[in-house]
Request: fold
Amino acid sequence: MPIIELEEITRIYRTSAVAVEALKGIDLEVKEQEFLAIMGPSGSGKSTLMNILGCLDKPTAGRYRLDGEDVSGFSRSRLARTRNQALGFVFQSFHLLPRTTAQENVELPLLYREEGLSWKEIHRRAREALESVGLGDRLDHTPNQLSGGQKQRVAVARALVTHPRVLLADEPTGNLDTRTSLEIMDIVQRLNADGLTILMVTHESEVARFAERVVTLRDGLIESDERTEPLSARRELARWLAQAESEADDRTRKSEELKEVPEAEEVAI
Reply:
């Protein structure tokens, strides 16, 4: 059974003068443990779709089943509970609290769990989540003490700490350089290989190639839905590092050659 099922999902935003149809009848199924990328130009409806998938918004019409349960008619409080228990979120801008440590940022979603976890359990889960993304030595660092890539790793750890069924990533590499983007995609692919279902919105085709399935939206409709052989972020990162090292060696060699030129001319004089 698919973990996500959308049937004829529409979303209409109304003002006093006009109605804007952002989604025009979306049908989509996502199987458990899939890694799906959602692409499309500005205004295509991908952000609206992500908001509905993340239970941050409700469709105007249609049915959304998450893990077999119809959530399209849930109340606000029940949607909030579903977000906390079943979904993890990673955003382009990190959305970390600036004056709290990495560990405290990761602990935050656990404070809203209904089962009332002990502080010992909350601390343990947060530490394990940060260690899983390679930040076990940054527990007490605040966001201004972290690089962009480290901030995004904290955001990933925060998304994982509740043990979600689905990870929703909205432009997770949008604010990162090439190397850091590859490092984040390597983590995402590893999480998917461990069994986590992942839906990622991106406008970069280079990033979408790390997913096994790419859905493209245009004008509120699905334009294409293609399966592909994903690139390995780990191999691409190794290739990038080797090229960067080679280019650095070339620069060093040229610099040394330039230093030798005046000495040769002085000898000739």
About this structure: The first strand starts at residue 4 and ends at 14.
